[in-house]
Design brief:
alpha/beta, Rossmann fold, seven-stranded parallel β-sheet, 7 strands
Protein backbone atom coordinates (compact mmCIF):
# COMPACT_ATOMS: atom_id res chain seq x y z
CA UNK A 1 0.00 0.00 0.00
CA UNK A 2 1.40 3.41 -1.00
CA UNK A 3 2.31 5.66 1.90
CA UNK A 4 1.72 9.41 1.91
CA UNK A 5 4.08 12.11 3.19
CA UNK A 6 3.51 15.84 3.60
CA UNK A 7 6.74 17.88 3.57
CA UNK A 8 6.98 21.61 4.24
CA UNK A 9 9.87 23.68 2.91
CA UNK A 10 10.18 21.13 0.10
CA UNK A 11 11.56 23.32 -2.70
CA UNK A 12 15.20 23.33 -1.55
CA UNK A 13 17.69 22.04 0.99
CA UNK A 14 16.77 19.15 3.26
CA UNK A 15 13.10 19.22 2.31
CA UNK A 16 13.92 18.79 -1.37
CA UNK A 17 16.45 16.01 -0.81
CA UNK A 18 14.12 14.12 1.53
CA UNK A 19 11.30 14.44 -1.02
CA UNK A 20 13.59 12.93 -3.66
CA UNK A 21 14.57 10.08 -1.34
CA UNK A 22 10.98 9.29 -0.42
CA UNK A 23 9.81 9.47 -4.04
CA UNK A 24 12.53 6.97 -5.01
CA UNK A 25 11.22 4.75 -2.21
CA UNK A 26 7.70 4.81 -3.68
CA UNK A 27 5.97 7.34 -1.42
CA UNK A 28 3.11 9.58 -2.53
CA UNK A 29 4.12 13.17 -1.78
CA UNK A 30 2.31 16.37 -0.95
CA UNK A 31 4.85 19.18 -1.04
CA UNK A 32 4.63 22.76 0.07
CA UNK A 33 6.89 25.82 0.10
CA UNK A 34 6.27 29.53 -0.18
CA UNK A 35 7.20 29.97 -3.84
CA UNK A 36 5.42 28.12 -6.65
CA UNK A 37 8.24 28.93 -9.10
CA UNK A 38 10.68 26.76 -7.15
CA UNK A 39 8.16 24.19 -5.91
CA UNK A 40 6.34 23.31 -9.12
CA UNK A 41 9.42 21.94 -10.95
CA UNK A 42 10.20 19.75 -7.94
CA UNK A 43 6.66 18.36 -7.94
CA UNK A 44 6.85 17.72 -11.67
CA UNK A 45 10.19 15.93 -11.23
CA UNK A 46 8.83 13.68 -8.48
CA UNK A 47 5.22 13.21 -9.60
CA UNK A 48 4.07 14.94 -6.42
CA UNK A 49 1.21 17.26 -5.54
CA UNK A 50 2.45 20.84 -5.08
CA UNK A 51 0.56 23.30 -2.88
CA UNK A 52 2.53 26.53 -2.63
CA UNK A 53 1.85 28.82 0.30
CA UNK A 54 2.92 29.97 3.74
CA UNK A 55 2.50 27.41 6.53
CA UNK A 56 1.97 30.30 8.94
CA UNK A 57 -1.29 31.04 7.05
CA UNK A 58 -4.27 29.15 8.56
CA UNK A 59 -6.05 28.96 5.20
CA UNK A 60 -3.02 27.30 3.63
CA UNK A 61 -2.75 24.79 6.45
CA UNK A 62 -6.40 23.95 5.88
CA UNK A 63 -5.65 23.23 2.21
CA UNK A 64 -2.77 20.98 3.20
CA UNK A 65 -4.88 19.08 5.73
CA UNK A 66 -7.62 18.61 3.13
CA UNK A 67 -5.08 17.18 0.66
CA UNK A 68 -4.17 14.40 3.12
CA UNK A 69 -7.54 13.82 4.74
CA UNK A 70 -7.74 10.29 3.32
CA UNK A 71 -4.68 9.31 5.30
CA UNK A 72 -1.23 10.58 6.22
CA UNK A 73 1.73 8.42 7.18
CA UNK A 74 4.42 11.07 7.57
CA UNK A 75 4.42 14.80 8.34
CA UNK A 76 7.76 16.57 8.02
CA UNK A 77 7.80 20.08 9.50
CA UNK A 78 10.91 21.32 7.73
CA UNK A 79 9.97 24.90 6.72
CA UNK A 80 11.84 27.38 8.87
CA UNK A 81 13.08 30.94 9.02
CA UNK A 82 16.44 32.16 10.31
CA UNK A 83 15.48 35.66 11.40
CA UNK A 84 17.98 38.38 12.35
CA UNK A 85 21.06 37.44 14.34
CA UNK A 86 21.89 40.27 16.75
CA UNK A 87 22.68 39.68 20.44
CA UNK A 88 19.53 39.01 22.45
CA UNK A 89 19.99 42.38 24.18
CA UNK A 90 19.22 44.02 20.83
CA UNK A 91 16.80 41.50 19.34
CA UNK A 92 13.73 43.21 17.81
CA UNK A 93 10.80 41.60 19.59
CA UNK A 94 8.36 42.03 16.72
CA UNK A 95 10.68 39.97 14.54
CA UNK A 96 11.09 37.37 17.27
CA UNK A 97 7.30 37.00 17.49
CA UNK A 98 7.18 36.46 13.75
CA UNK A 99 9.97 33.88 13.95
CA UNK A 100 8.11 31.95 16.64
CA UNK A 101 5.03 32.07 14.42
CA UNK A 102 6.92 30.41 11.55
CA UNK A 103 9.25 28.05 13.40
CA UNK A 104 7.15 26.97 16.38
CA UNK A 105 3.46 27.80 16.12
CA UNK A 106 2.96 26.93 12.44
CA UNK A 107 4.43 23.42 12.84
CA UNK A 108 2.21 22.77 15.86
CA UNK A 109 -0.83 24.10 14.03
CA UNK A 110 -0.11 21.80 11.07
CA UNK A 111 0.24 18.88 13.47
CA UNK A 112 -3.15 19.76 14.96
CA UNK A 113 -4.72 19.97 11.51
CA UNK A 114 -3.36 16.62 10.33
CA UNK A 115 -3.52 14.57 13.55
CA UNK A 116 -6.79 12.83 12.62
CA UNK A 117 -5.15 11.44 9.48
CA UNK A 118 -1.92 10.59 11.30
CA UNK A 119 -3.76 8.78 14.09
CA UNK A 120 -5.69 6.64 11.63
CA UNK A 121 -2.49 5.50 9.96
CA UNK A 122 -0.32 5.26 13.08
CA UNK A 123 1.78 7.92 11.40
CA UNK A 124 5.01 9.73 12.12
CA UNK A 125 5.80 13.39 12.77
CA UNK A 126 9.29 14.72 12.04
CA UNK A 127 9.99 18.19 13.41
CA UNK A 128 13.31 19.49 12.08
CA UNK A 129 15.29 21.15 14.84
CA UNK A 130 18.89 22.29 15.29
CA UNK A 131 21.79 22.07 17.70
CA UNK A 132 21.06 25.76 18.30
CA UNK A 133 18.08 24.51 20.34
CA UNK A 134 20.39 23.01 22.96
CA UNK A 135 23.69 24.92 22.57
CA UNK A 136 24.44 28.59 23.30
CA UNK A 137 25.81 30.21 20.13
CA UNK A 138 26.15 34.01 20.09
CA UNK A 139 23.73 35.50 17.59
CA UNK A 140 21.61 32.35 17.40
CA UNK A 141 19.43 33.14 20.43
CA UNK A 142 16.22 33.96 18.55
CA UNK A 143 16.39 31.04 16.13
CA UNK A 144 17.58 28.66 18.86
CA UNK A 145 14.75 29.68 21.17
CA UNK A 146 12.14 28.88 18.53
CA UNK A 147 13.70 25.45 17.96
CA UNK A 148 14.00 24.76 21.69
CA UNK A 149 10.29 25.49 22.03
CA UNK A 150 9.54 23.21 19.07
CA UNK A 151 11.54 20.43 20.70
CA UNK A 152 9.60 20.66 23.97
CA UNK A 153 6.29 20.73 22.10
CA UNK A 154 7.46 17.59 20.29
CA UNK A 155 8.50 15.97 23.58
CA UNK A 156 5.08 16.53 25.15
CA UNK A 157 3.26 15.57 21.95
CA UNK A 158 5.07 12.22 21.96
CA UNK A 159 3.65 11.51 25.43
CA UNK A 160 0.15 12.74 24.63
CA UNK A 161 -0.13 10.87 21.30
CA UNK A 162 1.16 7.33 21.95
CA UNK A 163 -0.28 6.03 18.67
CA UNK A 164 1.83 8.49 16.66
CA UNK A 165 5.63 8.47 16.48
CA UNK A 166 7.24 11.88 17.03
CA UNK A 167 10.88 12.68 16.33
CA UNK A 168 12.55 16.05 16.76
CA UNK A 169 15.56 15.81 14.51
CA UNK A 170 18.87 17.66 14.53
CA UNK A 171 20.30 17.16 11.03
CA UNK A 172 23.61 18.85 11.83
CA UNK A 173 25.30 21.48 9.67
CA UNK A 174 24.32 21.26 6.01
CA UNK A 175 25.39 23.27 3.00
CA UNK A 176 22.10 25.13 2.52
CA UNK A 177 21.01 28.66 1.69
CA UNK A 178 20.01 29.17 5.33
CA UNK A 179 23.43 28.23 6.67
CA UNK A 180 25.10 30.40 4.03
CA UNK A 181 22.94 33.34 5.13
CA UNK A 182 24.09 32.81 8.71
CA UNK A 183 27.80 32.07 8.35
CA UNK A 184 28.69 32.95 4.75
CA UNK A 185 28.91 30.87 1.60
CA UNK A 186 32.53 29.81 2.15
CA UNK A 187 31.97 28.29 5.59
CA UNK A 188 28.64 26.76 4.53
CA UNK A 189 30.36 25.18 1.54
CA UNK A 190 32.54 23.14 3.89
CA UNK A 191 29.47 21.42 5.38
CA UNK A 192 28.02 18.25 3.84
CA UNK A 193 25.12 18.60 1.45
CA UNK A 194 21.57 18.00 2.70
CA UNK A 195 21.32 14.77 0.71
CA UNK A 196 23.44 13.06 3.41
CA UNK A 197 20.98 13.99 6.18
CA UNK A 198 18.07 13.06 3.90
CA UNK A 199 19.50 9.57 3.41
CA UNK A 200 19.88 9.19 7.18
CA UNK A 201 16.31 10.35 7.67
CA UNK A 202 15.05 7.82 5.13
CA UNK A 203 16.79 5.06 7.09
CA UNK A 204 15.24 6.39 10.31
CA UNK A 205 11.77 6.36 8.76
CA UNK A 206 12.29 2.78 7.63
CA UNK A 207 13.56 1.60 11.02
CA UNK A 208 10.99 3.65 12.98
CA UNK A 209 12.51 3.76 16.45
CA UNK A 210 10.56 5.11 19.43
CA UNK A 211 9.68 8.79 19.70
CA UNK A 212 12.49 11.08 20.82
CA UNK A 213 15.24 13.50 19.88
CA UNK A 214 17.37 12.19 17.04
CA UNK A 215 20.61 13.43 15.51
CA UNK A 216 21.18 12.35 11.91
CA UNK A 217 24.50 12.77 10.16
Amino acid sequence: MTKTALITGASRGLGLELARALAADGWRLVLTARGAEALDPVAAELGALALAGDVADPAHRERLAHAVQDGLDLLVNNASGLGPMPPLADYPLDELRELFQVNTLAPLALVQATLPSLRRHGGTIVNISSDAAVEAYPGWGGYGATKAALEQLSNVLAVEEPDVTVWWVDPGEMNTAMLAAAVGAEEAGAAPGPEKAAAALLRLIGERPASGRVGVR
